[in-house]
Amino acid sequence: MQLQLELFPENTFSGSAGPVTVSLSRRASNRRERLALRNRALVARKYYWEEIMRRRTDDVTVILAENEFFVDERTIQNALMEYADFYTELCRKHVTAKQLQRMFPSFRF
User: Fold this and answer.
1) C-beta of residue 4 within 8 angstroms of C-beta of residue 11
2) What is the reported pTM?
3) Could you tell me how far CA 55 lies from the centroid of its own chain?
4) What is the model's pLDDT at position 4?
């Protein structure tokens, strides 16, 4: 039995382990929600690079700005200020890469 994509019923999707279900529903309905989700993911990636991979802060800023999110460094700093509590919580709980992967499945931690 093949599962089909919801928006494009004529396109089937099957992986090496069999059929794959892909949810195409949106998590964010407007620009503000999308920016909030992006900033939360950006802060999680910053935590990953600094605390798990043990990279220097200035190197992490370049990685995030130039290779992952393609935003200005100021945008990264604004996101970190906005989600400082989230970053502190990640540090306090010593969240692992596996836990981050479950929180943000579209990224590879």
Assistant:
1) yes
2) 0.75
3) 18
4) 47
